[in-house]
Amino acid sequence: MLTRSPQVSRLISALPPVCAIALSVVAIAPAAHARTAPPGPAPLLANGGFEAPGIPANSFIRYGTGSTIGPWRVSEGNVDLTGANFWQSADGRQSLDLEGSESGTIEQHLATRIGGCYTVTFALAGNPDGGPAVKRGFARVSQHTLGHPTVQKNFIFNTAGKSRANMGYVPQRFRFRALASSGTLIFASTTGGGYGPVIDAVNVTQSNPIECRLVRP
Ligand SMILES: [Ca+2]
User: pTM for the whole thing?
Assistant: First the structure.
C-alpha cells in the first residue's frame, strides 16, 4: 500500500480551501476548451493503408462478402489483401486487390460535418499477374441523407509494362461537400476476371470550403 510521507501529508492539510477550488477550475478548463475547439487532425478514415490485419509475407488472404478488414467491410464479391513482399505497396507493407476470384466492393463509414469540404486521396495500381491489362473501378462517397447524394470517381489503370516490383502507383483524388453528418466511402472493381485494380494509402482530409465550390454533391 502507498503511504504518504509526513511532508506531503502536511502540505495537503496546509492547503487553504481557495486553493482546492482553483485546482478544480484548472482541471475542468481543458475539457471545456476541447468541446469548443475546431476539428483536430484526427484521421477521418482508419486502416486506409490496409496494414491490418497483418498478412503473412509473400502471400495474400481473400476476404469474401460480409467479412471485415478492420473498419472496412466487403459488401460485394471478394478482395485479396496482400502481405509484405507479395508486390510493391504504396505505403507500409500491404495493399488491396479489389478483385479476389471476382469483382469486389469494400466500404467504410465516414463521420462528416455538414457543409464541410473533404478530399479523398488514394494510390492506384493494378494486379500485374493476369488480364485484362486495363483495370477499371470506382471510388464513391454515398451520403446518409435524403436521396443519398453521391460523388463518384471512376478510375482506370493500365498494367502494361508493370510488375510486382514496379507497380507504378498513381495518386488519385476527388472531393465532396458533406450534406450529411455521415456517409460511406466505397471502392469497387468493375474489371472482372480476378486480377483487379490495386489500391493503397487511402486518406480523407478536411479541405478549405473553396476547394468544393465546383463539386456537385
Ligand atoms: Ca499499405
Answer: 0.80
Q: List, edge to edge, every strand of the sheet that includes 68-69.
A: 68-69, 72-76, 105-111, 182-189, 134-143, 150-158
The class of domain 60-212 in CATH terms is mainly beta
- CA of 154 relative to ligand 1 center, distance in Å: 21
CA of 84 to the centre of ligand 1 (A): 9
CA–centroid distance, residue 89 to ligand 1 (Å): 6
Taking the centre of ligand 1 as the mean of its atom positions, its distance from the CA of residue 52, in whole angstroms, is 9
Q: List the domain boundaries for the chain.
A: 11-36, 60-212
Ranges of beta strands (E only) in 13-55 are: none
Closest to 204 measured CA to CA, from 170, 179, 172:
172
**pLDDT (tens place) for every residue of the chain, 217 residues total:** 444 444 433 433 444 444 333 333 343 444 444 455 555 556 799 999 999 999 999 999 999 999 999 999 999 999 999 999 999 999 999 999 999 999 999 999 999 999 999 999 999 999 999 999 999 999 999 999 999 999 999 999 999 999 999 999 999 999 999 999 999 999 999 999 999 999 999 999 999 988 888 655 5
Residues with CB under 5 A from ligand 1 (ion): 49-50, 89, 91-92, 94, 200
